[in-house]
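Hi,

Apologies if this is the wrong queue. I'm a grad student, and the batch job for Carbon monoxide dehydrogenase from Oceanibaculum pacificum produced an output file that my downstream script rejects. I'm not sure whether the problem is my script or the file. Here is the sequence I used:
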Amino acid sequence: MNAPLSSPQHQNTAIGRPVPRKEDFRLLQGQGRYSDDISLPGQAYAAMVRSPYAHGVIRGIDSETAKAMPGVLGVYTAADMRDYGGLNFQLKIPNRDGSPTRTTPRFALAADKVRFLGDPVAFVVAETAMQAREAAEAVEIDIDSLPAIADMKAALEPDAPEIYAEVPGNLALDFHSGDSAAVEAAFANAAHVARLDIVNSRIVVNAMEPRAALGEYDAASGRWTLHAGSQGAFPMRNQLAKDVLKVPNDKVRVLTGNVGGSFGMKAPIYPEYVCILHAAKALGRPVKWTADRSESFLSDQHGRDHLVTGALALDAEGKFLAVRFDLLANQGAYLSTVGPLMHTMNIVKNGVSLYRFPLIEVNSRCVLTNTAPIGPYRGAGRPEANYYVERLIDTAAREMGLDRAELRRRNHIRPSEMPYLAASGMSYDSGDFTAVLDRVLALADWQGFPARKAESQARGKLRGIGIGDYLEVTAPPAQEMGGLRFEPNGDVTIITGTLDYGQGHATPFAQVLSDRLGVPFERIQLLQGDSDELIAGGGTGGSKSLMASGAAIIEAADKVVEKGRELAASVLEAASVDIEFAEGRFTIAGTDRSVSLMDLAGQLEPGALDVQHIFDNAPSAFPNGCHVAEVEIDPDTGVVEVVKYTAVNDFGTIVNPMMVEGQVHGGVAQGIGQALMENTVYDADGQLLTGSYMDYAMPRADNMPDMVQDYHAVPATTNPLGAKGCGEAGCAGSLPSVMNAVVDALSVYGITHIDMPATPHRVWQAIRQAGG
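Support response: The file is valid. Your script probably expects a header line. Output copied below for reference.
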């Protein structure tokens, strides 16, 4: 990488500096442009008609009353949508016998059966949003209710209601990975086996901005435009064109502006988007749809939802011999775009974490139920896998009388063993896991915990401390665009196919380009959310954006230098071989004759220095770290409070430490939310009991402790920046550290496990049942 420029201005924005986010001033003034902010002349409004039953056969839909209501422009059912393709499961994950995942396509509107509460069966378009909602309520749906099944265990019983004839026994996938015979032998020969049944509770994603979209159709060109929140305009455009609208890619444009959070949930195409595009074509005018919060609870993809039996085999000295996870994974009523990925391959990749496990076996039965579909949620299997193994390690340490930290140290992969081929098949390139653990224990004052515990006890509180060691396998960056465009006004625009849905990409991307080319930081702009501007792009997900777009920007910058050297040679009247580039200037070697890149761009024809580059695939990276949480519990009420939190992370090269700290802070907040309060509950008939903030608890500022964060950076060797990704690490470290701390606090009553969420009622109940 080029040496940092020497000017004070550049030093203030160089890689490694905590540069404030470029967009914050505009956003804090209310000048952001989110999906619901977009309006077009003549637009109409859509409202969805949703099933009030979790399971049933559609006998008829009577829309006559609705059609006659004021302002109504149309009422549409599945019969009107039959020319469109399904919202298809995109991956190939085989059953243990090699057969493909059992699935049926999901279409925009249910035609024969409804399969979960809120399943869309029709929609209304009217002149105003209120008219559309009132008319939607007037649509009468004749549904023969069928027995529903919301419990994934019960869904596998022989007499369970069948959700699809094409999916016998409601089992979409019976996944297996690992050498069963070798794992069984390791367990048979083990000196000790720790076993644990673990619930990974279902989460409603609850992004700050509910989903919204606006569809257009241009009859003259036969072209659709969708304005919607997404995690990548390019992949959404491609799937929408190929699978749903069945048209060439150039007939579809996806535009995404500011996005108020996603965490995986806004990545796929939803039924509502297809509906408004259809109506826009049918009516010859734009059509808009916006969900309210109650509709989001029903219709957004949910996250997590596993039942796990974990087992850890150890020898007499505590050396890990094998780990096995047997999962039941709820898929909901339809497979999402990535379907069972979180419950299968991501458990395999992340379940061995940063330890020298010789063997891992994963058995996952992925079950369909009459509940909302499950999709990725911050980490998408990575935090869960780390949670399972960390709970097993604490259990083994207690049962064998070993120190929790020492047991982890004994089994850490050592720096001298890098590159390390893990039992998952992943090759770790870098990391110093014991140094990270030792650093966080020192910062957290692990040795001083007994005194803090005694002080809490004197106030009538229980105090516990927990470790959350973790390693994540990031998503492998697909091909990614690195476009650089020199604008007439002197700005330089980065064009890339990742997408900022709250992370703040504009600032670190500008830091990378400024470092590479010497372009003034304040003149760098970012364009991400327009599929027409992109020639490649994998979107944002799996903590890969800086690795993908950062590498693409670096390679594109190098191409600008190549172009510029030839052009500068002409301007400076020298041979191109004599032109050097450093600190933003082209110079004739051995002389003081030079021209800056920006001045050169101003002298050239528009586009002369522009680059459209595609960065090819890079392997996954392995962000890792260790978090230590301390909790206090009031034994009289069961209330759990996180009172101290320390995190040391290895994210490789850190471009902007302030923004990384914010990412960790947000992930920890979501982890604490799942650990202590968030829980999605359906009744036996598939009715959602936690359908609003009256029934679903979300973490707030007063649930968060002050956090101490530090870094032990070992740069990755597999991408030009040396970056490892940080977006999901907060969840990966907080789930195990908080829950291990809760169990540690409750251990005075002989309690050895409690499931998430550790709500006051659940904790109080556990204490009472233990005789406390």
